[in-house]
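Lecture 7, part B: from sequences to assemblies.

Below are the input chains for today's worked example.
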Amino acid sequence: MKSTIKDVARLAGVSFKTVSRVINNEQTVKEESRSKVWKAIKQLDYQPNLSARHLRGAPSSIALIYDNPNSNYIIEMQQGILDQCREKRFELVIHPCDSSSPDIVKELTQIVFHSGVGGLVLTPPLSEMPHVVAKLEEENIKHVRIVSGSSSPDDSSLCVYVDDRAAAHRITQHLVEQGHRKIAFFGGDSAHASSEKRLTGYKEALQANDLEIDEDLILPGHYSFESGAERARHLIDNGKLPTAIFGCNDDIAAGAMFYAQNNGVNVPEQLAIAGFEDNPFSRHTWPRLTTSRQNNNAIAQRAAELLIAEICPGRYDINVMADNGFEPQLVVRDSTAQQASPK
Amino acid sequence: MKSTIKDVARLAGVSFKTVSRVINNEQTVKEESRSKVWKAIKQLDYQPNLSARHLRGAPSSIALIYDNPNSNYIIEMQQGILDQCREKRFELVIHPCDSSSPDIVKELTQIVFHSGVGGLVLTPPLSEMPHVVAKLEEENIKHVRIVSGSSSPDDSSLCVYVDDRAAAHRITQHLVEQGHRKIAFFGGDSAHASSEKRLTGYKEALQANDLEIDEDLILPGHYSFESGAERARHLIDNGKLPTAIFGCNDDIAAGAMFYAQNNGVNVPEQLAIAGFEDNPFSRHTWPRLTTSRQNNNAIAQRAAELLIAEICPGRYDINVMADNGFEPQLVVRDSTAQQASPK
DNA sequence: GTTAATAATGACAACGTTGTCTCGAATAGG
DNA sequence: CCTATTCGAGACAACGTTGTCATTATTAAC
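Predicted structure of the full complex, as structure tokens:
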């Protein structure tokens, strides 16, 4: 059942080193031997033993490092990486961590030495912490970062970009087009660069439409339902209710919507609300939430592709045409339906 | 930065084999050497290389195998297993799969040979497929199953039980106590044993209260929001609306609630709705959902503990007092508030 | 005080793979 | 036909651990 490289070699009638060459796609093997070896591999269902590879210094696993409370985000990322791993016959190691821990960098380097992974995929907020990235560079640990922003060529490390600024611009533009002039912004955790970028996009869109930026409508907070509800309460209690709210993620937006509707403010008639991220539940809120959808699966796949190519130079040709920048898409649902529109 | 067992040995002034013994908690080491070795280990931040261990046949990783669309469930399980892995210095490999694939058993055996994991953690519905379990037994692949049911000693493989029947009984009992006599049951996917167990608990509770079981109120379907909404529509359109619905998970319940409220049926005044699983969003629906909460983290931790103990006999003493049966808890929220209760 | 038993440790092979080096065979150049 | 070059493939070591067995230090028994 369990077959080794030597079993394959015996069956194919070559030395086990030749089998190794075939597997690793080296060029110095005659076509004849190559096909014999492949036939034997198929016949025996042979798969190279990962541990032995690692030991010899040829990694074939990567790690996903995360500190993110959003389980849906993580699952989508994970799935994307796994899709890529399956294709390249890599294994995935999962490592959640506490990004605020003082030992975080030590923890990361240890993972590499301990479990022999070839590289790390970093998600926000870890991917956006300079001291973490610097340490990885210094220790020469391969990694790819998923970050909020648009491509900037001065980045030394591999990056995949999600253009939060542009997406926030688009969603704000949508609200403006629905006739809104007073649009509040509910920010997310300040540790995430995404929150800042989304604020920038929001401001840009307002300016592009010659609307004034009202600092009283820009409320900091956290990426949570409770934080969204709390800020809605604040605005309603103080009689400063705008006609629209842009929540920095769907949890915030749902929280705000929940509070508003429970306190006599109808959505979207009196108050339009938009979210961000397209969490699955946002299709099931009432009304359904307008939001911004990013293809986390594709983003993660690309990140894994880049990382694996970096780990095994020359083994796989990378898709150079594919872009490392991703732009989320506007998803219009009921929570921002036009005020004048027929029910 | 990267230190091996030999570095430790040199620093401690013993042979590297002695270090190995200390790490593996073998008894034949003098106390004096043992403390010297531990000191050196601490000083060098030494961590054994997993790949080398695997290679030599001492696995220190396990795999989580799943085919489950519920991302929250998976993340909670994953986190529980990781907590246990961290304690035992194990690594976790993630492997989603398609349980309906004809090659599923082959796929599982390959994971073991390929990546050298010591064993598998199986979640529903995979853990409840006899042909999968039988093959693993046959191939002598260590595994632990998380299954729906109560402990039955004739199980040959390691199991952790979640007593869905009892939990469903409790939730139905709660509905009866709220004064309901006509309670519909919205089932989940038939591939999951959990759905069947929950139905049994529902029926038991009705019988215990001398209530008739009305087969017209037992509706099969899927574990999804849409399926819940669809069945609510069916009941409402046919004028067969009961006074309460027990949805087999929170998605179903939320879907039913969504449809009911959008079609002039108030929850809980005209219709009480209870879910199952305590998905995070069920705290944020309106009204908030009564449901049944299972401690997936604890369940997964226990499963991992059992599996690791099985893989390394004698290395860790297992907590024999801890139970392998888990009973979900009733979480009463607003969606089943008593009809006569003051707003 | 000698011998037998036991406790503690070390030497060495082995796990399955890849990198380095070497060697033979085939090819090309004169 | 001989030599220089290139191509293909094998021998062997190495990676960092653990298992087996041999060896030494310690204790117990008489």
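Note for the exam: Chain B touches chain A at residues 1-2, 45, 47-55, 61, 71-72, 74-76, 78-79, 82, 91-94, 96, 106, 109-110, 113-116, 139, 225, 254-255, 258, 261-262, 280-281, 283-284, 286 (CB under 8 Å). Keep this in mind when comparing with the next example.
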